[in-house]
Design brief:
Largest interface: A-B, 64 and 64 residues
Largest sheet of chain A: 7 strands, mixed
GO molecular function (chains A, B): O-phospho-L-serine:2-oxoglutarate aminotransferase activity; pyridoxal phosphate binding
Structural class of chain A: alpha/beta
Number of strands of chain A: 14
Number of domains of chain A: 2
Cofactor (chains A, B): pyridoxal 5'-phosphate
Strand content of chain A: 15-25%
Distance between the termini of chain A: 26 Å
CATH architecture of the largest domain in chain A: 3-Layer(aba) Sandwich
Oligomer: homodimer
GO cellular component, one term (chains A, B): cytoplasm
Order of helices and strands of chain A: EHHEHEHEEEEEEEHHHEEHEEH
CATH topology of the largest domain in chain A: Aspartate Aminotransferase, domain 2
Family (chains A, B): Belongs to the class-V pyridoxal-phosphate-dependent aminotransferase family. SerC subfamily.
Organism (chains A, B): Flavobacterium fontis
Radius of gyration of chain A: 21 Å
Chain lengths: 356, 356
């Protein structure tokens, strides 16, 4: 039976990425060798890394604008640490917007380095909205925000105008919608939503902003060293980077971000319309902040849980359970999830309604 | 044509690991989902992680001895940083043995944390031997060494007896030979030699030694947090961990470390015998310190280079070029390289001799 994978991450990737990457494990580029056994310094893999870095700049519209692209390891959580290492001056100060669990974790790491001002937080409302009225202190070394909150189903629809360098954790919505990406000093994202499998982290940096903190950095924390090493200061995560390249190539064929954005908008519109229409369900996030990537919703009457769960499981849907901090359901509709899968989910919601 | 892959890492893995992991990308455990798209919190992946951790302890003979196993990200270079974070006390001191480039890199990171004594170094001899007469200061918080030096083809055949906790970077020879692994406080290894593809790092820790430095640790640097999170404090490198499990399962079928050690010894004996016998070649490492994993050797007369390179390339051999710091050739004979491949290399060396 066809599966409809709503996993919040790692998550569904395009079918052709599965097929091409499986083939490369058996024989990469008709070399007679597996992608798993070649040197990262081989001509074939250097070409993979270079194409992946160039494609990221092309897809984000950042070519020729002074940005460098890195593929690192450790996930976004490692960037929570690298960000203050590289951007918070000795005796400096950072500003953070607290919109969810991951933002809170990023704040915790920054606090180890120096003064960390939380400019606004929606914690008291269990992060069900994005705070909008706040001031970013002009003297901050940087301002950090999280564009999409996977757990709580919220998404920043706009970003503040500020002269402070803006750093954004885009782990769960990068490559999903058009933005002026040049408003950011640094963008980072764990690969495992819209870019590839788990195991690599994308970092996009405005290079001229680096090297200004007065700190001595450990090698593995130093973005400048990683840039100089072209993401190969040490052995990179070869396979995750290769599978990410395949996913980026697929995205380009969909018309890039502009192309996929239309499909993502259609998927989100379809599901949220049903959540709002169907008397059995309700959304948990503030309507104006609803994420196009992760829709969080509840059954108004928990008594229907068993029946609904049986229905969507029977339809081949997986990964729909909500995070324990919110409960209910979370439908993650990343780039590779087809509109058809959302229609199947909507059908089961209507089936539940009819059956009661 | 059959390839004989002598790459220094990432390197050859067992053919069945390629086949099984390619299959899991198309359909993992007959779930209808790819290993690349499942949640790391899914039952199926938790089982992978648990089996991998248990198998490491079993293969190393460390079951029930107070050790914890982690699969982290960042490669051994990230452990160069995590080690002083977790083991060097505030105002403490570390002792390091300098046997190669990677040892030197580890030393550089430790120096950022506090007094770092290099107890001995073979740097002046371009690291062509392992220093043996040195004293580990009794007051050191730990002693760090590198068991095998990939670039220079040397290997520690024995380890010092000391009451100081011993930490060993075993990236390039773990799982290749029998040792009393319980003499180490901490063992770490980038996966991409004997354990799996690039993208995950194995860390094996004597747990009772942690938490004694007086330092406040960033979350991603904190071994105790990673232990508590069972290697899933954040999303792990799912596919590299899975392919590592497959490689560990393969190793167990070879009779574990004791089984593979015999084959590794036969491979090394065959190649070193030819290096010593053949008048055209010479080894670069001190004979008593020769690595069973990486054999480094030169053509006595560089004029034969073109001819020899053509011969081994024609035989299907790849990855034989030496590292730029040593030159000549490096034959990396990791666990998955069959004895047959070494025989092919020896044949080309003899062919060269006959042709001159």
């Amino acid at each position: 039976m066809k599966k409809h994978n709503y996993s919040a991450g790692p998550c569904i990737l395009p079918q052709e990425v599965f097929e091409q990457s499986a083939q490369a494990i058996l024989d990469f580029n008709q070399s007679g060798l597996s992608i798993l056994e070649i040197s990262h310094r081989s001509k074939d893999f250097i070409a993979v890394m270079e194409e992946a870095r160039a494609l990221v700049l092309e897809l984000l519209g950042l070519e020729g604008k002074g940005y460098q692209v890195l593929f690192l390891q450790g996930g976004a959580s490692m960037e929570f640490l690298r960000v203050p290492y590289n951007f918070m001056k000795v005796d400096g100060k950072a500003a953070y917007l607290e919109t969810g669990t991951w933002a809170a974790n990023a704040i915790k790491e920054a606090q180890l380095f120096g003064e960390t001002e939380v400019v606004a937080s929606s914690k008291a409302a269990n992060f069900n909205y994005i705070p909008k009225d706040y001031t970013i202190p002009a003297e901050a070394d940087y301002f950090h925000c999280t564009s999409n909150n996977t757990i709580f189903g919220t998404q920043m629809k706009s970003f503040p105008k500020t002269d402070v360098p803006m750093i954004c954790d885009m782990s769960s919505d990068i490559f999903s919608r058009s933005l002026d990406f040049s408003q950011f000093a640094l963008i980072y994202a764990g690969a495992q939503k819209n870019m590839g499998p788990a195991g690599t982290t994308l970092v996009v940096i405005k290079e001229e902003l680096l090297g200004k903190t007065g700190r001595t950095l450990p090698s593995m924390m130093d973005y400048q060293k990683q840039i100089k090493g072209e993401s190969m200061y040490n052995t990179p995560a070869v396979f995750p980077v290769y599978a990410s390249l395949l996913t980026l190539q697929w995205l380009k064929k969909q018309g890039g971000i502009a192309g996929i954005e239309k499909i993502n908008a259609a998927k989100a519109a379809l599901l949220y319309a049903e959540i709002d229409r169907n008397p059995l369900f309700e959304g948990t996030a503030a309507i104006e902040d609803r994420s196009t990537m992760n829709a969080t919703f509840l059954l108004k009457d928990p008594a229907h849980t068993e029946k609904f769960d049986a229905l969507w499981k029977a339809a081949g849907i997986s990964g729909l359970n909500g995070h324990r901090s919110v409960g209910g359901y979370r439908a993650s509709m990343y780039n590779a999830l087809p509109l058809e899968s959302v229609q199947i989910l909507v059908n089961t919601m209507q089936e539940l309604e009819r059956s009661i």
